[in-house]
Design a protein that fits this description.
The protein is built from no helices and eleven strands. With about 120 residues, the chain is mainly β. The strands form two sheets. Strands 2, 4, 5, 6, 9, 10 and 11 form a seven-stranded mixed beta sheet that branches. The chain is globular and about 40 Å long.
């Protein structure tokens, strides 16, 4: 029903910046929040940030608070993740995800649709 496509990943040096985009299409009328998750090799998929389509409320993981900013463009059905002051430990595949829940979930189990991911690599 919902298709999500991430873009903007790449290779950057520590301290650099990247902006990820997630374009949503299909039957998105029931979507309430868009979340960003990341998964490094051998690690669990972890919550990064999320934003509400209607109210614009946001949530962040402690590890990225103050460095990452999630935003949206409702007209373009697109959400963004601005990543500044990148660290090597930010290296992961980044996924966007859609949820119909009315309370922002931080677990991947709370999300219904997922993009294929985009690789972010931060070199030291």
């Amino acid at each position: 029903q919902v298709q999500l496509v991430e873009s903007g990943g790449g290779l950057v040096q520590a301290g650099g910046s990247l902006r990820l985009s997630c374009a949503a299409s299909g039957r998105t009328f029931s979507s309430r929040f868009m979340g960003w998750f990341r998964q490094a090799p051998g690690k669990e998929r972890e919550f990064v940030a999320a934003i509400s389509w209607s109210g614009g409320g946001t949530g962040y993981a402690d590890s990225v608070e103050g460095r990452f900013t999630v935003s949206k463009d409702n007209a373009k059905n697109t959400v963004y993740l601005q990543m500044n002051s990148l660290k090597p430990e930010d290296t992961a595949v980044y996924y966007c995800a859609d949820t119909r829940r009315t309370i922002l979930p931080r677990s991947p189990l709370g999300y219904d649709y997922w993009g294929q991911g985009t690789q972010v690599t931060v070199s030291s």
